[in-house]
Amino acid sequence: MALLTILEYPDPRLRTKAQPVSVFDAALRSRVDDMFETMYAAPGIGLAATQIDWHQRLIVIDVSENNASRQVFINPEIVSSEGAATGEEGCLSVPGIYDDVPRAERIVARWQDVNGQWQQGALDGMLAVCLQHEMDHLEGKLFVDYLSELKRQRIRKKLDKERRARATARPAAGGRTSSP
Ligand code: K1U
Ligand code: ZN
Question: Considering 134, 139, 149, 162, which one is annotated as catalytic?
């Protein structure tokens, strides 16, 4: 298994629209394992393939408290939705930022499993919110797109500052460090 790099906002690759998965093979199952490992390590409750720069319609989610309920959604579609639920969301591609996002409260979704079998289910609560968030990723959409331009500007500045601070504290591989 491997830990994958998660793209961070405003990386333009996060805006790529993902293509349908058409091959259900061992390589796909290995990719799913790597995505779960990366998601648990982050830590997070969901991860879309877009976030690891793989532009296929693949999502992993585990909203359990003990990492014991892995769910894989391939080529997901929302069949119907009802109700409105606005709640605070985070995103591994926008680290440390949380804000309110309007979502449907309940959804009926269909998707393929790792064997290519179609599944359908009625989802609510955190699972419904998380699947809607992850499906946005597959369209190249981020939760910050629901916020004002002013908030997005502030978020970009904050993340930029944090990235610069990280780069100063730990120079990139191959970079020189000054001696005391
Ligand atoms: O898509 C992502 O970047 C994952 C994201 C999913 C999500 C969270 C909240 C609402 C909607 C979608 C995250 O997992 S952010 C981290 C997070 O919420 C969390 C991390 C550890 C424990 C519990 C939650
Ligand atoms: Zn996200």
Answer: 134
